[in-house]
From TrEMBL:
Membrane topology field: Single-pass membrane protein
Domain annotation General secretion pathway GspH: ranges: 30-150
Keyword Cell membrane appears in the UniProt entry: yes
Subcellular location: Cell inner membrane
Protein name (record): Type II secretion system protein H
Biological process (GO), any one: protein secretion by the type II secretion system
Length: 163
């Protein structure tokens, strides 16, 4: 009986830490997915010698008119470079809405990141901010930076700006 009581107390103490761990891992998985897909889009643009875009998408087939990256995103071969999936465009990857996120915002108004055939991103230089479902004083917030050259990378926790 004593062992059960001690086990219950330990489980009660460990539950919040475990929940925080799961939340942090979920946010990090979303960061890794976006960085991976941005890098994939850049490499596909270079390999295909054609434009490839990444945009927010709720259904995995069309871009959203206003960026809502927490809904998910798609990578697609963008023949006309308009950042919108047209009949002649081919969807290459689909990322569903990441769990554990309260929001995924961007510093840019443009809905898509468009990679030219040279690998450079048109109108890049943006920051993506990942905010977990519940955070204490901003802990758990992660950022992804896309440079003007189109390189994507995650920044360490506590970093507030992309350089």
């Amino acid at each position: 009986m004593l062992a059960l009581a001690i086990g219950a107390v330990l489980a009660t103490l460990a539950a919040p830490a475990y929940q925080r761990f799961l939340l942090q891992r979920g946010v990090q998985a979303a960061v890794d997915a976006l960085v991976g897909d941005l890098r994939y889009a850049r490499s596909e643009a270079l390999m295909r010698s054609a434009r490839v875009s990444v945009c927010s998408s709720r259904d995995g087939a069309a871009c959203l008119a206003t960026p809502d990256w927490a809904a998910g995103w798609i990578v697609f071969a963008d023949a006309d470079g308009d950042g919108v999936v047209d009949a002649s465009d081919r969807v290459l990857r689909v990322q569903a809405a990441p769990p554990y996120l309260a929001s995924l915002s961007t510093s840019a108004l443009r809905a898509a990141v468009i990679y030219e055939a040279t690998g450079w991103a048109r109108a890049a230089g943006r920051t993506f901010t990942f905010t977990p479902l519940s955070s204490v004083a901003g802990s758990g917030v992660r950022i992804v930076c896309v440079s003007n050259q189109g390189r994507a990378g995650a920044r360490a926790p506590g970093t507030s700006k992309c350089s």
